């Protein structure tokens, strides 16, 4: 129904299906009687007739084409340009996902160092939003500010601490999910900005190292880059890894907590096999969790082991699911007196290279409640001062 005009698609497609061969015949006749140029039309409509026949009588894979023929194809075409039409013409400035136009343009402006001040007030629905930043009545002046510094590993008193002086890190994105150019561009950007970049689960960070930025090596559940053949941790490879300002053990990721993965053998090129430390010609499974981490006790032991072997700051990344399990983990840290140098809380709204929709939409806690849960539990058990807390999940603006 468009306004008051209703369109019967069945009738329309029947008319189109009759019109196409009829036009082929008419062009054929006109080609004889008037000018042979009309035969171009004959050929075009003949091909369309054959295509229509194929859609409606031969193929069985697409019900829409089987029912509507070429009209069905028109619907696919309209559907395929729908996102662009909505984005450029119809969507309002605050309704797109994952980032709307207002948010994107703020990021673009900041990236280009263009003034991002706007007028006429916020576009957010204020009634439905909590207060996020409680400002002081007595703000400090710029010259009174102490420069930002965060040192990982200082709580353990290790020699090889690692300090960042800007509150940003490029999140884990594996080589594989990203291509060489993306990895190189991000690594180059990180170097320029003076911030570290996380390698993601892609194994040995060849291209990152080429570009020379600070790196956080991610040890995913398959331990790509630091694994034995069976997928267990190879301490020697861990020690030998040169890309190591810090190491992050991935326990779970916001977009797909508890979800493992499969690297199909077809995707294992010579390079991937080398970087990930896996054999060619065999599917490789990323387990849904580290096989050694079968409970809080073992998980904390693994953290302690990696800290000991590597000698550098080691953190963990997790998306909060059941608060009771996070509490058990914190209790175990206190009991063993072993703490990761940081916990990176990943909100369920965070991005991913690939994950099933149900996981993206429904599994895990969003960042704010997740971060609060972890912070509160650490504080409750007197462990908050033993580590740093990081956060990720669509954080693109300063608040
Ligand atoms: C293309 C892509 C690849 C990713 N690969 C990994 C990965 O290898 N390991 C991991 O822990 N998280 C991975 N993530 C998730 C991010 O590290 C991060 O947790 C998520 O994007 C949320 O943070 P953000 O909203 O600030 O991007 C990936 C995300 C994207 C978009």
Outline of the structure:
With 399 residues, the protein is α/β, with parallel strands linked by helices. 42% of the residues lie in helices and 10% in strands. It folds into two domains: 9-90, no CATH class; 148-392, TIM Barrel (Alpha-Beta Barrel).
Q: How would you characterize the overall build of this protein?
A:
The protein folds into two domains: 9-90, no CATH class; 148-392, Aldolase class I (TIM Barrel, Alpha-Beta Barrel). The protein is elongated and about 95 Å long. 42% of the residues lie in helices and 10% in strands. The chain has helices spanning 9-33, 38-58, 63-68, 70-90, 101-111, 180-193, 206-211, 235-240, 270-276, 296-310, 323-336, 357-362, 367-380, and strands spanning 150-152, 162-164, 197-198, 215-219, 246-250, 261-263, 284-286, 314-318, 342-346, 388-392. It has a six-stranded parallel beta sheet. The chain starts with 8 loop residues before the first helix and ends in a 7-residue tail after the last strand. Helix 1 runs antiparallel to helix 2, helix 10 crosses helix 11 (323-336) and helix 11 packs parallel to helix 13. It is of the alpha/beta class. The longest helix has 25 residues, at 9-33. Bound molecules: flavin mononucleotide. Residues 171-174, 177-178, 200-201, 218, 250, 253-254, 317, 346, 350-353, 392-395 line the site of flavin mononucleotide.
Please specify the SSE layout and strand pairing:
Blueprint: H1 9-33, H2 38-58, H3 63-68, H4 70-90, H5 101-111, E1 150-152, E2 162-164, H6 180-193, E3 197-198, H7 206-211, E4 215-219, H8 235-240, E5 246-250, E6 261-263, H9 270-276, E7 284-286, H10 296-310, E8 314-318, H11 323-336, E9 342-346, H12 357-362, H13 367-380, E10 388-392
């Amino acid at each position: 129904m468009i306004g008051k005009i209703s369109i019967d698609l069945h009738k329309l497609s029947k008319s189109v299906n009759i019109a196409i061969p009829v036009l082929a015949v008419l062009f054929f006749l006109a080609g004889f009687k008037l000018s042979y140029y009309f035969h171009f039309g004959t050929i075009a409509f003949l091909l369309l007739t054959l295509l229509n026949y194929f859609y409606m009588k031969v193929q069985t894979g697409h019900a829409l084409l089987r029912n509507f023929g070429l009209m069905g194809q028109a619907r696919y075409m309209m559907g395929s340009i729908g996102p662009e039409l909505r984005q450029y013409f119809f969507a309002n400035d605050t309704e797109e996902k994952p980032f709307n136009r207002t948010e994107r343009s703020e990021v673009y402006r900041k990236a280009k160092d263009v003034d991002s001040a706007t007028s006429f007030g916020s576009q957010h629905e204020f009634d439905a939003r909590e207060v996020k930043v409680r400002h002081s009545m007595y703000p400090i002046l710029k010259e009174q500010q102490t420069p930002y510094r965060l040192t990982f590993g200082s709580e353990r008193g290790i020699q090889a601490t690692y300090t960042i002086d800007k509150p940003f890190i490029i999140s884990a994105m594996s080589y594989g999910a990203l291509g060489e150019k993306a990895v190189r561009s991000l690594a180059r950007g990180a170097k320029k900005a003076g911030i570290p970049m996380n390698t993601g689960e892609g194994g040995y960070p060849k291209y990152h190292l080429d570009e020379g930025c600070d790196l956080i090596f991610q040890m995913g559940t398959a331990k790509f880059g630091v694994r034995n053949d069976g997928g267990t941790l190879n301490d020697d490879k861990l020690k030998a890894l040169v890309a190591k300002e810090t190491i992050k053990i991935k326990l779970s990721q916001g977009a797909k907590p508890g979800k493992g993965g499969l690297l199909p053998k077809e995707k294992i090129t010579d390079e991937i096999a080398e970087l990930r430390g896996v054999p060619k010609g065999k599917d490789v499974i990323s387990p849904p969790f580290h096989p050694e981490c079968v409970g809080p006790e073992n998980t904390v032991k693994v953290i302690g082991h990696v800290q000991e072997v590597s000698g550098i700051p080691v953190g963990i990344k997790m998306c909060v699911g059941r608060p009771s399990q996070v509490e058990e983990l914190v209790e175990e840290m206190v009991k063993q007196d072993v703490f990761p140098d940081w916990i990176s809380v990943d909100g369920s709204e965070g991005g991913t290279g690939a994950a099933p929709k149900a996981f993206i939409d429904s599994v895990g806690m969003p960042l704010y409640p997740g971060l609060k849960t972890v912070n509160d539990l650490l504080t409750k058990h007197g462990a908050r001062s033993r580590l740093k807390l990081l956060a990720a999940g669509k954080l693109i603006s300063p608040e």
